[in-house]
């Protein structure tokens, strides 16, 4: 009954030998009677940029949300950095994690949403400071300093005092990326980060993401930006109907898809 | 009828427009407006005349306006309003969170509470609290406190319990609406950053819900201020009770009711101003998306000259 929040000792059953940041084994997820994920197997290696593409309703966003336990999986196993997501395994029994333990694990996983979800009642710099101050107990002055650095990194040093409603979509999304980075995550999840943006603003956000990829961050990116996937991605998975249809090197899959379903999808979006 | 001079002109001199000349048209007449204004003025005059005719001792109002008993009543009314609103707001937040919780027991209890207190008149509730001594002779909290119910249940406590617990039911619905108005993405973003449920509620959800909660709460405060007049029925010496007592002793009941009405109007006006500034505070960061309420628009029209001073202060 060690209450260690990291729970590292309790995952002896996990095959954590490989340097996999995310490992999914037969992940199933249903909403009521609708089965959205029908057995996903995949592996995201540490330090790589992993792109998930597919038509809407294919389950790619749902899978992403499972990784930080915003959705509960119904069957299969999902590991992040060698530890089970949302559960603790003792022998062959699974125990649900308490809310506080789930929250503790989420500290290490940054997430960027399609609709930004910035806190509208806080300025840009306050948005970035919020989690370090409230969750990690960082001193306010220190957190503000770091938040200013991060805003500078995403090219928004001059917007620190602005409220989200005074920023463009692209600026808001870059603040959201800075906000996620403020927790020094080991894994970043991007849920269609450019889908809600005007076309001319997409580039700024992708530049920040490219920059982040070059710094060695492990990233799982749900995207419709095939150009980004081809250029920056290390692995790519094409999902449809809740299963992985095809996976491999993005350049290979995008230029020479093997499956019929992949071909017809790519012919429509490229 | 002699006013319609223009009619005789007819429409003879209608010349084709020779350029972008300013239009000089005969405005449409609205005889109905004159008629309705005259009727309204006549009715108002009749009301004023009636009151001037009546045997009202107007001098009694300024005489008692700052009477110690009246000021005492004003203070008691304000105190009671603030304290019962505090009970109402705290209780309302607790009930709203209970109703939204996944625990079926707590959410049902909250539902039942709201159903009961919203469904029975406050006056009845006040009398029930006041007369509970008929059921419980003593109040006995073990070694801590023991007394007769009648001496425990002072008029102030009766009034506070009656008004506060009733208000909590209304505030619960207002708070619930506020909490539900915050986008779910906010909760998700907060959770994804590793913030706990409580921190998410306190730091992210409630500050945003306040924008929705404050205007109807301001309404409730003003309502509460007026509803406190009911507690004269349980012997609490509020403004209304004091005015009533003075009126009965001095033989000027109606005058004292006028006096009380004036004091209530003064207090509600001051509260409205306070509400405006609280709303402005919680609108920060979202004022661009939030259309001004009619109340705000009205205030904007009245206050623009004063605003620059207020902002720099």
From TrEMBL, chain A:
It comes from Streptomyces ruber. It catalyses: a polar amino acid(out) + ATP + H2O = a polar amino acid(in) + ADP + phosphate + H(+). InterPro entries: AAA+_ATPase (IPR003593), ABC_ATPase_HisP-typ (IPR030679), ABC_transporter-like_ATP-bd (IPR003439), ABC_transporter-like_CS (IPR017871), MetN_ABC_transporter-like (IPR050086), P-loop_NTPase (IPR027417). This is ABC-type polar-amino-acid transporter. Its main location: membrane. The keyword ATP-binding applies. Gene3D superfamilies: P-loop containing nucleotide triphosphate hydrolases. Its EC number is 7.4.2.1. GO terms for molecular function: ATP binding; ATP hydrolysis activity; ATPase-coupled polar amino acid-transporter activity. It is a peripheral membrane protein. Residues 22-266 form the ABC transporter domain. One of its GO terms (cellular component) is plasma membrane. It holds the Pfam family ABC_tran. Keywords: ATP-binding, Cell membrane, Membrane, Nucleotide-binding, Transport. It is found in: Cell membrane. The keyword Transport applies. PROSITE patterns: ABC_TRANSPORTER_1 (PS00211), ABC_TRANSPORTER_2 (PS50893). SUPFAM superfamilies: P-loop containing nucleoside triphosphate hydrolases.
From TrEMBL, chain B:
Signal peptide: none annotated. The keyword Transport applies. Belongs to the binding-protein-dependent transport system permease family. Residues 74-275 form the ABC transmembrane type-1 domain. GO terms for molecular function: transmembrane transporter activity. PANTHER family: ABC TRANSPORTER PERMEASE, ABC TRANSPORTER PERMEASE PROTEIN. This is Histidine/lysine/arginine/ornithine transport system permease protein HisM. SUPFAM superfamilies: MetI-like. The chain crosses the membrane at residues 34-54, 74-98, 110-136, 148-166, 256-278. GO terms for biological process: amino acid transport. Its main location: membrane. It is a multi-pass membrane protein.
């Amino acid at each position: 009954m060690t209450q260690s929040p990291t729970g590292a000792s309790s995952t002896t059953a996990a095959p954590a030998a490989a340097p996999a940041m995310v490992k999914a084994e037969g992940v199933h997820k249903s909403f009521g009677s609708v089965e959205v994920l029908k057995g996903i197997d995949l592996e995201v290696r540490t330090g790589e940029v992993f792109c998930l593409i597919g038509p809407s309703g294919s389950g790619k966003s749902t899978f992403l949300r499972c990784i930080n336990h915003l959705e509960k999986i119904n069957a299969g196993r999902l590991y992040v950095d060698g530890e089970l997501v949302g559960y603790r395994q003792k022998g062959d029994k699974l125990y649900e994690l308490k809310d506080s333990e789930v929250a503790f694990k989420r500290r290490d996983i940054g997430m960027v949403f399609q609709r930004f979800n910035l806190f509208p009642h806080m300025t840009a710099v306050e948005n970035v400071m919020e989690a370090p101050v409230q969750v990690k107990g960082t001193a306010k002055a220190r957190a503000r300093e770091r938040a200013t650095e991060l805003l500078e990194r995403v090219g928004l040093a001059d917007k620190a005092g602005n409220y989200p409603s005074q920023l463009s979509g692209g600026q808001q999304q870059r603040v959201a990326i800075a906000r996620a980075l403020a927790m020094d995550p080991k894994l970043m999840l991007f849920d269609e980060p450019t889908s809600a943006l005007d076309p001319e603003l997409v580039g700024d956000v992708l530049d920040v993401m490219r920059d982040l990829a070059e710094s060695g961050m492990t990233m799982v990116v749900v995207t419709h930006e095939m150009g980004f996937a081809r250029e920056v991605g290390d692995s790519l998975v094409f999902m449809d109907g809740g299963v992985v249809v095809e996976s491999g090197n993005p350049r290979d899959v995008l230029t020479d898809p093997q499956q019929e379903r992949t071909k017809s999808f790519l012919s429509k979006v490229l | 009828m002699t006013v319609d001079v223009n009619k005789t002109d007819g429409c003879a001199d209608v010349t084709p427009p020779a350029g972008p000349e300013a239009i000089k048209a005969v405005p449409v007449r609205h005889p109905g407006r004159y008629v309705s204004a005259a009727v309204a003025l006549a009715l108002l005059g009749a009301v004023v005349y009636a009151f001037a005719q009546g045997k009202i001792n107007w001098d009694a109002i300024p005489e008692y306006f700052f009477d110690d008993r009246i000021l005492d009543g004003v203070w008691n009314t304000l105190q009671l309003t603030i304290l019962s609103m505090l009970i109402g707001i705290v209780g309302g937040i607790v009930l709203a969170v209970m109703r939204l919780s996944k625990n079926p027991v707590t959410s049902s209890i909250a539902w039942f509470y709201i159903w009961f207190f919203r469904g029975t008149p406050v006056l009845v509730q006040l009398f029930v609290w006041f007369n509970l001594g008929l059921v419980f002779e003593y109040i006995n909290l073990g070694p801590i406190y023991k007394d007769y119910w009648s001496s425990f249940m002072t008029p102030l406590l009766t009034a506070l319990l009656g008004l506060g617990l009733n208000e909590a039911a209304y505030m619960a619905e207002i708070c619930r609406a506020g909490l539900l108005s915050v986008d779910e993405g906010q909760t998700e973003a907060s959770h994804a950053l590793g913030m706990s449920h409580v921190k998410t509620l306190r730091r992210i959800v409630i500050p945003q819900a306040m924008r929705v909660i404050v205007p109807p709460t301001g309404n409730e405060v003003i309502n509460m201020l007026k509803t406190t007049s009911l507690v004269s029925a349980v012997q609490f010496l509020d403004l209304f009770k004091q005015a009533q007592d003075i009126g009965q002793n001095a033989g000027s009941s109606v005058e004292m009711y006028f006096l009380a009405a004036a004091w209530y109007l003064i207090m509600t006006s001051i509260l409205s101003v306070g509400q405006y500034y609280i709303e402005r505070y919680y609108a920060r960061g979202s004022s661009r998306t939030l259309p001004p309420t009619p109340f705000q628009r009205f205030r904007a029209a009245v206050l623009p000259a004063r605003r620059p001073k207020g902002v720099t202060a």
